[in-house]
Write a sequence for this structure.
C-alpha cells in the first residue's frame, strides 16, 4: 500500500517537475526543476530496492546538472526570462510533435506487447552493488572498458584544449608586451 | 643643496622668493622638474598644492601652484612655485611623477586650475555634481550643495579596458568593492572589472569622507585646528597633533621645552604602535585569522585606557598645543605605560606565534600586491609601505626632530614590497617604537611642558584670576589665536603611515591663510590599482588592508 | 512486523534525529562562540542565562521574528526554495547514519538508524552533496553579484572536494568490502588498535581535509567569507531563511564528524569500560571542537590556492593511496 502511495507521489512530482523544465521560459526554473526531477526519480529505485542505482542516480545527475548551472551562470542572466526566437514555427511544431509521438511509441511498445521481464531479478542476500559489479566485469566488460576509455579520451581532450587556449593567451600577451 | 648651486645650475632662470620656494616660469616647469628630478636627484614629489592670493597679496598673480620635492637622500626639501596667468592652465607633470596624477586632480577640484595633458582631469574629493572650487577664497563657505547622482565611473573604466585590449565588455563583470564593503576599512570605492574572480582593471573613487578639513582650517585659530587634525588619521590622532604643532612651531621659529619634546616622542611612538596594531589586526581579519584581532586589539584597548587617563579622550585626544603639550604625565603613568607596553609585546608575540610560520599566511601574503622600489617612489609612497620595498626612508633618521638622533633604534626594511613585507615591517616597527619609548622614559628630564612665552602659551590659571596681564593674555590668545608671522612653510614628521606633512601659508594673523596636509594615504591609495590588477579579489582586499588607508586622512 | 509499524517507527526515528540534530546544531553555535571566545581571550555570550547559555533561545527568537526580506529582482520561488534545499538535504543525508549501537527499551530492540540501506556511505555522501544546490540556487536567484560570486565559489569548491572525499574513502571501502556504515563500524570492533585510522592514515587525512572544505569551515571558508565577498550566497538572506542555511551548515558539520568517527575512528564500538554511545558522543564532540580550534588558529586560503591543493595535491595523493591499497590487498 505504502509503496503505491510512494510511487504515485513520486510520479506526480517527477512529471510535474519535468513539465516545468519544458514549459518554463526561465533557465533557472528549468534547471532547478530538472535537478529536482532527477532526484525524485531515484525514489523509484529505492522503492524497487535498487538502492545503489538510486544513490548513483542522485550523485550522477546532481553533478551533471551542476554543469548546466555553470553554463547558465556564464552565458545568461539567469534571473531573467529567456526570449525564444523561433524563426519558422511550422517546422518547429511539426518536429516537436513528431518526436514526442516517436518517444511515446518507443516507450509504450514493450507495455503493449507485454514482454517486460526482469532478466536479472534481485537476489535475496546479495546486495545489488555486488550484482552490478559482477555484470559489469563479466558480461558487459568490453562495453564498460570502452566507455571508460572514451571518457578518459574526452577528459584528456578537454584538458589539452583548455591548456592550448591558455598557452595561446600567454603567447598573445608576450607578443603584446614586445610590441609595447 | 644651497641656493647658489641652483642659480648656477639653472642659469638664472629661477630665482628664490622669501618663502624658500624657487619661482619657476609657467613655460619652464616641465624642464625644471625634469632637471631637478634626474640631475639633482629630487626623486620624490611629496605634494602639490595651490594658493589663492586673492585676500593676501595678489599683485603678482592670483594663483600659484607649489611643488614640494624631497631629495633622494631624504633630508632635503625643495619647493618650486609657479605663478599662474589668467588662463589658469599649467602643463601636467604626470609624465615625470605619477604622484602628480591625483595631486593635480585635487588642485583642479579645489582651485579650478587646469592641467594640460593630464590623463584624467576630474574631481577627486568633491562630488562630480559639485559646482565651484571650494578652496578659492571667494567661494562662500555657507553655500550648501545637494549632490545626489553616483558616478558610474565608466568614463574612466572604458578607456582603461580599451587600453588592455577589451573591445566589448560582455565577458566582464563589473563590481563595486566599496564604499560599503566589510573590508574597505572606511568609505573607499574600488570599481573593478572582473574576469572570473581575476581583477582586470580598477578605478578608485575617494572623497566619500571629504569634510573640508582644509577649508575649515582657514576659519579657525591655530590651536582650534588641533582637534580637527585628530580626525585625519584617527588611528594615531596624536601623531597628527604633533605634525601640525611641529609645523606651526617651525613657522614661529621656537623650540619647545625638552620635557615636552620627550612627551611628544613617547606618546607619538605609542600612537605609532597602536596605529600599526589596528592595521595588522584588520588585515589579519581580512585574511580570516580572527583570533589575532583580539590579540592585537586588547593591547590597543589598554593603550586607549592609558591615553584617556592622560588626555581625557580615547580616540581624538587633542593632546598637543602650539608650544608644547596640554598636560603633564599623571602620577602612576610610568606604571600604566609599562603594563601597556607589556600588553603590546605579548599581543604581538602571540600573533607572530600564530602566523609567522604558517604556510597559509605565507601563501596568502608573499608575492601578493607587489610594488617595486622605483614605482613606489614615483608614486610618492612613504612610511612603512615604502620601507617594505627596501628603501630605508624614515624622517626620524633622515631629518631627526625631537632628538630622535640620540635614540638607538633600527629601521626595518623589506625586500620585495609585497603584503608580507608591509606586515612584517609594521610588526618590527612596533617593537622599535617600544624600544624608543623605554629609552625616552629613562631619560625624560623634569621641567616645563609648555613654552614660557605669553604670545604662544596660555598663562597659568593663577595669573588669569589674579592679574590683569594674565586676563589679557588669555583673552588675546583665545580670541585672536597665536600670531604666526607671514610665511609659506612646509614641514613634516614621520607619521604612522609615512611622511605626514603640513604646508601652511600664514598672513600674520591668528588664523592660517591656507593649510594643506600631505596625507601619506592619499599617495599610497593612488598606487592601489596598479597593485591589484591581475590578482584576485582576495588579494585586492589584502593589498588594500596592507596599505593602511585611513579614510579620514585620505578624504580630509 | 507489519508495514505500518515500520513506517511509524521510521517516522518516529526521523523526528527524533531531526530534533536532536537540530538541537545539537543550535547548541553547537553556543559552544562555538564560547570556545572561540576562550581561545581569543574574551568571554563570549554572558548576559542571557548562566554563562550565556540561553543565548540560543534569544538568537532563535531573533531569527523567527526578523523581517523576511526578498529582494525585488530576485526570483522568488527559487530564492525561497534554496535554504529549504540546504537544510533538507543535510537532514535527509542523516537517514542512513547509525549513531549508536542498538539497544533495548521495554523489550523492544531499537536500531538507532532511520533506514539501514546497504550503500549507506554512498547515500550519505551523495545526498549531502545535493546540499550544494542550496548555496547555488541562493546565489543565482538573489540578483546580487556577491551572491553570484559566492555561488560560483560554492560549486567549484564543493564539487572539487567531493572528488577528494570520494576517492579517499574508496581505499577503506576496498579493505572492508562494504558500503554499509554498520559493516564499516563492525570491521573496527577490536579496540583502538583496529581503527582504520592506523591502516589508512593518508585516506583519513584527505577525508578530514575534504570534510573541512565541504562543510565550508575555516581555513576553507571561502564561500561566504565576508572580507572578500560580503556574505557570499547568503548576502540577501535574513531571518529564518538565513537560519535554515545556518542549521544546514551545522547539520553537515555533525554529519562529517559522525562519518569520520565511524569510518576511521572505530565508530560506536565501546572502548574499555566506556559504552559505545558515549564513545560516539566523545568522538563527535572532539571533531566539532577541532573544527572550532582550526577556525581560531588559521587564516583562510584563497579560492585558487584551494583548487590548487585539491587537484594537484590531494587528488593525486588519493589516487596513489587507492593504488597502494589495491596492490596490498591483491
Amino acid at each position: 500500500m505504502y509503496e503505491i502511495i510512494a510511487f504515485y507521489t513520486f510520479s506526480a512530482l517527477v512529471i510535474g517537475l519535468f513539465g516545468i523544465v519544458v514549459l518554463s521560459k526561465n533557465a533557472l526554473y528549468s534547471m532547478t526543476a530538472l535537478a529536482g526531477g532527477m532526484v525524485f526519480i531515484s525514489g523509484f529505485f529505492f522503492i524497487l530496492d535498487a538502492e545503489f542505482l538510486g544513490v548513483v542516480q542522485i550523485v550522477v545527475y546532481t553533478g551533471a546538472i551542476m554543469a548546466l548551472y555553470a553554463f547558465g551562470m556564464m552565458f545568461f542572466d539567469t534571473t531573467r526570462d529567456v526570449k525564444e526566437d523561433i524563426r519558422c514555427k511550422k517546422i518547429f511544431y511539426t518536429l516537436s510533435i513528431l518526436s514526442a509521438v516517436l518517444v511515446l511509441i518507443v516507450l509504450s511498445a514493450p507495455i503493449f506487447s507485454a514482454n517486460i521481464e526482469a532478466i536479472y531479478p534481485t537476489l535475496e542476500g546479495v546486495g545489488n552493488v555486488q550484482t552490478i559489479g559482477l555484470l559489469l566485469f563479466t558480461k558487459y566488460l568490453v562495453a564498460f572498458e570502452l566507455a571508460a576509455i572514451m571518457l578518459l579520451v574526452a577528459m584528456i581532450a578537454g584538458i589539452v584544449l583548455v591548456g592550448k587556449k591558455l598557452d595561446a593567451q600567454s603567447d598573445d600577451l608576450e607578443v603584446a608586451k614586445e610590441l609595447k | 643643496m644651497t641656493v647658489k648651486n641652483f642659480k648656477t645650475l639653472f642659469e638664472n632662470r629661477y630665482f628664490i622668493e622669501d618663502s624658500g620656494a624657487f619661482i619657476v616660469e609657467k613655460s619652464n616647469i616641465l624642464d625644471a622638474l625634469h632637471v631637478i628630478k634626474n640631475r639633482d636627484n629630487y626623486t620624490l614629489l611629496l605634494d602639490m598644492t595651490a594658493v589663492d592670493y586673492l585676500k593676501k597679496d595678489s599683485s603678482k598673480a592670483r594663483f600659484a601652484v607649489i611643488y614640494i620635492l624631497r631629495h633622494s637622500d631624504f633630508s632635503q626639501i625643495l619647493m618650486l612655485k609657479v605663478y599662474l596667468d589668467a588662463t589658469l592652465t599649467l602643463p601636467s607633470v604626470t609624465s615625470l611623477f605619477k604622484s602628480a596624477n591625483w595631486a593635480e586632480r585635487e588642485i583642479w577640484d579645489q582651485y579650478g586650475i587646469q592641467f594640460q595633458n593630464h590623463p584624467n582631469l576630474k574631481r577627486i574629493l568633491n562630488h562630480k555634481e559639485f559646482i565651484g572650487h571650494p578652496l578659492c577664497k571667494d567661494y562662500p563657505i555657507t553655500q550648501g550643495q545637494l549632490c545626489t547622482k553616483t558616478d558610474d565611473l565608466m568614463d574612466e573604466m572604458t578607456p582603461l579596458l580599451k587600453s588592455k585590449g577589451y573591445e566589448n565588455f560582455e565577458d566582464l563583470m563589473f563590481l563595486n568593492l566599496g564604499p560599503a564593503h566589510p573590508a574597505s576599512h572606511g568609505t573607499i570605492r574600488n570599481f573593478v572589472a572582473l574576469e572570473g574572480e581575476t581583477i582586470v582593471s580598477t578605478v578608485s573613487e575617494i572623497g566619500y569622507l571629504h569634510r573640508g578639513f582644509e577649508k575649515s582650517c582657514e576659519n579657525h585659530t591655530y590651536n582650534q585646528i588641533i582637534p580637527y587634525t585628530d580626525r585625519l588619521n584617527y588611528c594615531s590622532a596624536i601623531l597628527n597633533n604633533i605634525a601640525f604643532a611641529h609645523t606651526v612651531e617651525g613657522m614661529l621659529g621656537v623650540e619647545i621645552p625638552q620635557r615636552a619634546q620627550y612627551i611628544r616622542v613617547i606618546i607619538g611612538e605609542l600612537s605609532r604602535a597602536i596605529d600599526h596594531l589596528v592595521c595588522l589586526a584588520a588585515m589579519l581579519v581580512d585574511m580570516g585569522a580572527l583570533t589575532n584581532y583580539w590579540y592585537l586589539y586588547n593591547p590597543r584597548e589598554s593603550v586607549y585606557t592609558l591615553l584617556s587617563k592622560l588626555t581625557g579622550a580615547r580616540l581624538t585626544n587633542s593632546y598637543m598645543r602650539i608650544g608644547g603639550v596640554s598636560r603633564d604625565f599623571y602620577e602612576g603613568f610610568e606604571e600604566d605605560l609599562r603594563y601597556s607596553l607589556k600588553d603590546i609585546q605579548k599581543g604581538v608575540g602571540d600573533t607572530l606565534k600564530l602566523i609567522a610560520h604558517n604556510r597559509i599566511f605565507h601563501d596568502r601574503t608573499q608575492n601578493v600586491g607587489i610594488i617595486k622600489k622605483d614605482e613606489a617612489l614615483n608614486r610618492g609612497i612613504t612610511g612603512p609601505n615604502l620601507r617594505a620595498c627596501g628603501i630605508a626612508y624614515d624622517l626620524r633618521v633622515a631629518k631627526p626632530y625631537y632628538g630622535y638622533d640620540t635614540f638607538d633604534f633600527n629601521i626595518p626594511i623589506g625586500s620585495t614590497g609585497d603584503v608580507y613585507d608591509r606586515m612584517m615591517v609594521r610588526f618590527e616597527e612596533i617593537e622599535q617604537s617600544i624600544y624608543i619609548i623605554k629609552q625616552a622614559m629613562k631619560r625624560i628630564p623634569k621641567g616645563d611642558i609648555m613654552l614660557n612665552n605669553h604670545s604662544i602659551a596660555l598663562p597659568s590659571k593663577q595669573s588669569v584670576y589674579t592679574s590683569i596681564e594674565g586676563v589679557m593674555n588669555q583673552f588675546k590668545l583665545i580670541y585672536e589665536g597665536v600670531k604666526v608671522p607671514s610665511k609659506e612653510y612646509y614641514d613634516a614628521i614621520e607619521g604612522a603611515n609615512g611622511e605626514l606633512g603640513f604646508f601652511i601659508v600664514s598672513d600674520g594673523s591668528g588664523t592660517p591663510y591656507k593649510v594643506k596636509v600631505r596625507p601619506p594615504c592619499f599617495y599610497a591609495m593612488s598606487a592601489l590599482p596598479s597593485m591589484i590588477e591581475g590578482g584576485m579579489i582576495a588579494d585586492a582586499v589584502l593589498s588594500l588592508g596592507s596599505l593602511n588607508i585611513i579614510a579620514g586622512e585620505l578624504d580630509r | 512486523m507489519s508495514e505500518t509499524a515500520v513506517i511509524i517507527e521510521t517516522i518516529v526515528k526521523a523526528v527524533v534525529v531531526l530534533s536532536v540534530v537540530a538541537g545539537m546544531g543550535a547548541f553547537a553555535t553556543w559552544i562555538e562562540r564560547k570556545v572561540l571566545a576562550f581561545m581569543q581571550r574574551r568571554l563570549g555570550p554572558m548576559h542571557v542565562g548562566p554563562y550565556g547559555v540561553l543565548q540560543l533561545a534569544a538568537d532563535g527568537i531573533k531569527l523567527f521574528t526578523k523581517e523576511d526580506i526578498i529582494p525585488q529582482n530576485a526570483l522568488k520561488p527559487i530564492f525561497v526554495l534554496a535554504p529549504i534545499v540546504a537544510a533538507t538535504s543535510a537532514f535527509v543525508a542523516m537517514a542512513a547514519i547509525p549513531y549508536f549501537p542498538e539497544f533495548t527499551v521495554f523489550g523492544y530492540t531499537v536500531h538507532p538508524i532511520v533506514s539501514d540501506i546497504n550503500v549507506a556511505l554512498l547515500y550519505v555522501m551523495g545526498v549531502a552533496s545535493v546540499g550544494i544546490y542550496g548555496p547555488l540556487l541562493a546565489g543565482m536567484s538573489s540578483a546580487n553579484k556577491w551572491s553570484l560570486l559566492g555561488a560560483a565559489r560554492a560549486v567549484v569548491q564543493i564539487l572539487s572536494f567531493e572528488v577528494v572525499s570520494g576517492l579517499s574513502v574508496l581505499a577503506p571501502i576496498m579493505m572492508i568490502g562494504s558500503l554499509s556504515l554498520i559493516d564499516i563500524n563492525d570491521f573496527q570492533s577490536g579496540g583502538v588498535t583496529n581503527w582504520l585510522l592506523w591502516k589508512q592514515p593518508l585516506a583519513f587525512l584527505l577525508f578530514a581535509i575534504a570534510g573541512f572544505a565541504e562543510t565550508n569551515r575555516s581555513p576553507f571558508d571561502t564561500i561566504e567569507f565576508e572580507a572578500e565577498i560580503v556574505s557570499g550566497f547568503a548576502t540577501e538572506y535574513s531571518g529564518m531563511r538565513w537560519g535554515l542555511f545556518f542549521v544546514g551548515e551545522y547539520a553537515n558539520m555533525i554529519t562529517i564528524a559522525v562519518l569520520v568517527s565511524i569510518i576511521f575512528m572505530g565508530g560506536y564500538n565501546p572502548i574499555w569500560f566506556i559504552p559505545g554511545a558515549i564513545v560516539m558522543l566523545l568522538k563527535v564532540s572532539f571533531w566539532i571542537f577541532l573544527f572550532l580550534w582550526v577556525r581560531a588558529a588559521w587564516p583562510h586560503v584563497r579560492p585558487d590556492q584551494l583548487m590548487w591543493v585539491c587537484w594537484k595535491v590531494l587528488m593525486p595523493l588519493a589516487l596513489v593511496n587507492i593504488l597502494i591499497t589495491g596492490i596490498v590487498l591483491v
